[in-house]
Amino acid sequence: MKAAFIRKYGGSEVVELGNLPTPEPGPSDLLIRVHAASVNPVDFKIRDGMLKTLLPYRFPLILGNDLAGTVVGLGGAVKRFEKGDEVFARLDRQRIGSFAEYALVDESNAATKPANLRFDEASSIPLVGLTSWQALVDLARLSPGQRVLIHAGSGGVGTFAIQLAKSLGATVATTVSERNIELVRRLGADIVIDYRRQRFEDVLHDYDVVFDTLGEDTQLRSFAVLKRGGALVTIAGVPTARFMREWGASTWVVGYAAWANRKAVRLAKRHDVRFEYLLMHPDGMQLAEIGKLLSDGRIVPVIDKVFSLDLVREALAHSESGRAVGKVIVQP
After folding, report:
1. Is the pLDDT of residue 271 over 90?
2. What is the set of domains in the chain, with CATH numbers?
């Protein structure tokens, strides 16, 4: 099968396009004919080796973390799906590989593709949808009437998170550049801040939740927006020491995480708020719930550009540039 893979960590030059063996499904696996896969920041972070401490992989490593496609093979223990079913999924963290003609997905991580979505639209959802769900529902416990600030509202996660927060009954503020103001308003944002002209902490106060997708200075400034008892959930930067400890990391790695997050932890204590790090995990049941929101139109996919698998380097570069509005898609 044709696939985009790496033999070592590095920049775009290490990404190869070639033929690798089609994988064989294990007992609980679905063999998926991939019709579309989406590009996510985690893809170029994996390519660069930035996550090798958390996620050690073997080479050659096929890139790609989520997909939409058709079931063409089944493991003997599979019960929920049949050949011919159209599904979408976030692949196992330990076994990625959606930038290929075929990929394996454990059936527990897959959900039926919403019938009203094309394959490219469906492939744009799993990673950003589950990230937003686990950040806003599981960790932040966002509820009707609360107020949430979502950073980078025009990005892949942001465009989904705005819509999810509105479906939960929250008031949504977001930060974008001027050219994307109308887009995020159409998605449901109540308050839109052009980050080049305004400092969000000068405008927003007493918020219940901040969903941080940027890290660094933006993260540190965000604590001032929260009310006492609020929560800042981040998917950016170095995981917290608590997260690394629960992950089973070495004492040295936990110590480094504590040092890297020392300013954020100090600010969380000063403002009396929770500071949570999220590394999203696959979950087919949550994805099925997200599918319902897509089926009834409460959430719509936002796609920036579609590339062929032959142009996977260009797709990764476009996503990495930060210029994409919504998701970047690769089609084998």
Report:
1. yes
2. 2-125+301-331 (3.90.180.10), 128-277 (3.40.50.720)
